[in-house]
């Protein structure tokens, strides 16, 4: 099993290119089921999650060609013969659920094993299934499976009790060929949903308002193939912004959309980081003393839960008291115990993490408990005294393209150890 070793104490400098978004490409791959024609995804991130969802689709006879050198994925779903993908693959990743909407839309049925993913808290699928039922599907959950059937889907008005990203995406995909109009109210507003809407519209869908709190979908008869480049990964960009901040460095981050990063920029600026942008790049200057801040995670456009643990690492290095309140997932402070092994002073009180900045962190052997926690531990290792070894790095590989190589390009002393 691989490890990542980080020797702390080096400042970062130079520039880094950000990959396209994992959280955008996964629903786009799933949406390709809707067409019996070829779909092409350009500049796709070569991530473990991308490989897993591709394998899930292969088990239902989808032809997927991944060119890792060209970062291109070609998907041909014209020969799908089965609506029940391999359960062992589905269990590996929660995003497998994203095929439910396309399957019920195109084939009128699906059967999936209940999936897995990062253990960051309860993430029920009731809102997904409520949406399918509202469109006319008969849904059943039992014996470790969820299945649905529908002779015909009919548009409806659907109000989400919580602006769930996955539910919004699944219902959008389910509704594209439903008869009449579907309106999703209190929809999630993440940029990745806007990107999915663009992809679906390029396939022939009629969607208005993707990326806002009200999404309107007018059903069409069929969908076609298309070519698409996903948006930049705002969480990867945010992680490198924090890498600059935690090492008190100056770096340039390329291939980003400043609009997507506003909540992260706002909080880093509040802490004293100087951030400027020229449209396609962001310049981060943290070569100064920083101030403690409070953070509350919220659905977009609030501060992203996926950046919570990385910011915790930064706040451990800033003198004074900071408080992070997590409102999305109830079990997203598992990084705290690992950071304490490095000398962090963190106290968990319910949904809040109270952080007292320390004079220094020290290297230790720590474990990536989930994707973003793993990235946060790498960030802590960049400034810790001595060597930090991070295990269970397969979590990190699910969401970051060659993170150690990108950090090496900025001057970090980091390497992957093959065990």
Rg calc: 21 Å
Look at the helices and sheets and give the structural class: alpha+beta
Strand content: 15-25%
Gap between N and C termini: 5 Å
Strand order of the largest sheet: 21-22-1-23
Pathway: Cell wall biogenesis; peptidoglycan biosynthesis
Protein name: UDP-N-acetylglucosamine 1-carboxyvinyltransferase
EC number: 2.5.1.7
Subcellular location: Cytoplasm
Structure write-up:
By secondary structure, the chain is an alpha+beta fold. It has 2 domains: 2-19 and 232-418, Enolpyruvate transferase domain (UDP-n-acetylglucosamine1-carboxyvinyl-transferase, Chain, Alpha-beta prism), CATH 3.65.10.10; 22-228, Alpha-beta prism (UDP-n-acetylglucosamine1-carboxyvinyl-transferase, Chain). The protein is 30% helix and 24% strand. The strands form 6 sheets. The protein has a 4-stranded mixed β-sheet, covered by helices on one side. It has a 4-stranded mixed β-sheet with strand order 2-14-16-15, with helices on one face. A 4-stranded mixed β-sheet has the order 4-5-3-13, covered by helices on one side. Helix 4 (100-106) packs parallel to helix 6 (165-175), helix 8 runs parallel beside helix 10 (308-315) and helix 8 packs parallel to helix 12. It is globular.
């Amino acid at each position: 099993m691989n490890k990542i070793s980080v020797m702390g104490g080096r400042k970062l400098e130079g520039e880094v290119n950000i990959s396209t978004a994992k959280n955008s490409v996964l629903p786009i791959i799933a949406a390709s089921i809707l067409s019996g024609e070829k779909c092409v995804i350009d500049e796709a991130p070569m991530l473990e999650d991308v490989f897993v969802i591709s394998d899930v689709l292969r088990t239902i006879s989808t032809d997927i060609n991944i060119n890792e050198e060209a970062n291109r994925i070609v998907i041909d779903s014209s020969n799908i013969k089965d609506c029940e993908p391999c359960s062992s693959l589905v269990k590996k990743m929660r995003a497998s659920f994203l095929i439910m909407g396309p399957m019920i839309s195109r084939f009128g049925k699906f059967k999936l094993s209940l999936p897995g993913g990062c253990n960051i808290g309860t993430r029920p699928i009731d809102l997904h299934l409520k949406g399918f039922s509202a469109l006319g599907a008969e849904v059943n959950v039992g014996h470790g499976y969820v299945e649905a059937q529908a002779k015909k889907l009919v548009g409806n008005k659907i109000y989400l009790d919580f602006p769930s990203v996955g539910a919004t995406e699944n219902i959008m995909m389910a509704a594209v060929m439903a008869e009449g109009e579907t309106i999703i109210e209190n929809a999630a507003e993440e940029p990745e949903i806007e990107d999915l809407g663009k992809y679906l519209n390029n396939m022939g869908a009629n969607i208005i308002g993707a990326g806002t709190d009200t999404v309107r979908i007018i059903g069409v008869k069929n969908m076609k193939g298309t070519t698409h480049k996903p948006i930049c990964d705002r969480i990867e960009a945010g992680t490198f912004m924090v890498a600059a901040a935690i090492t008190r460095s100056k770096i340039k981050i390329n291939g980003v959309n400043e609009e997507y990063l506003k909540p992260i920029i706002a909080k880093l600026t509040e802490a004293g980081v100087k951030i400027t942008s020229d449209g396609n790049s962001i310049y981060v200057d943290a070569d100064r003393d920083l101030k403690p801040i409070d953070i509350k995670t919220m659905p977009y456009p609030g501060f992203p839960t996926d950046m919570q643990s990385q910011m915790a690492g930064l706040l451990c290095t800033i003198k004074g008291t900071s408080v992070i309140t997590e409102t999305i997932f109830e079990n997203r402070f598992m990084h705290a115990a690992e950071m304490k092994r490095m000398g962090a002073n963190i106290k968990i009180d319910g949904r809040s993490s109270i952080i007292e900045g320390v004079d220094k962190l020290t290297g230790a052997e720590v474990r990536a408990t989930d994707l973003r926690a793993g990235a946060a531990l790498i960030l802590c290792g960049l400034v810790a005294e001595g060597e930090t070894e991070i295990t269970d790095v397969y979590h990190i590989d699910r969401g970051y393209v060659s993170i150690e190589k990108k950090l090496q390009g900025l001057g970090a002393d980091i390497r992957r150890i093959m065990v």
